[in-house]
Amino acid sequence: MPPRDFGMFMYEQQKGSKNPQAFRMHWVFYNIVFKEPNLYLTYGTTEFNGETFEIMLEFDDAIYNKILTLLPQKQNVALRALALEVKSYPSQIDFDDDYPEFRPQIGLDVKLGEFRKLGDKKYVPFVVNDAVRPEDL
Closest by alpha carbon to 83, among 68, 98, 66, 100? Predict the structure, then answer.
């Protein structure tokens, strides 16, 4: 059975709350999806109370550019170049297991987003509001 969506789980936990809880998290990028102009996604798994969940984060150009400025120069330059090569949407960059040192790591401030549907799958992404260096978490 595939892991449950963490956003859906947190939505259920916060049902009825007028101000969804914001989170600060350390994130390791295994991928970046260029979903459409000015909309990026990244996804992976997270552990909570001993259970593994799928998690999806989304962000816009402003956050993408801020993330790039916080990365080491080598990663910054490479990701800017890759983004310029995107000619159609969606496009995805995967950070290969053979090069884990290249996976960007960043601190992110996130909050629950809106319900989304991808095929038959329903999920609630976390929307990235800010990015910080991981050592500033």
Answer: 68
Fold of 4-131: OB fold (Dihydrolipoamide Acetyltransferase, E2P) (2.40.50)
Q: Who contacts 67 (Cβ-Cβ below 8 Å, separation ≥6)?
A: 59, 104, 106, 131
Structure tokens at 103: 């996976």
- Chain-centroid distance of CA 61 in Å reads 13
First-to-final CA distance of the chain? 33
43 close to 55: Cβ distance less than 8 angstroms: yes
Cα R_g (the chain), whole angstroms: 15
pTM of the full structure: 0.89
**100: buried, middle or exposed (CB in 10 Å: 19+, 13-18, 0-12)?**
exposed
At 21-67, the pLDDT tens digits run 788 999 999 999 999 999 999 999 999 999 999 999 999 999 999 99
Unique residue bearing structure tokens 């949407």: 89
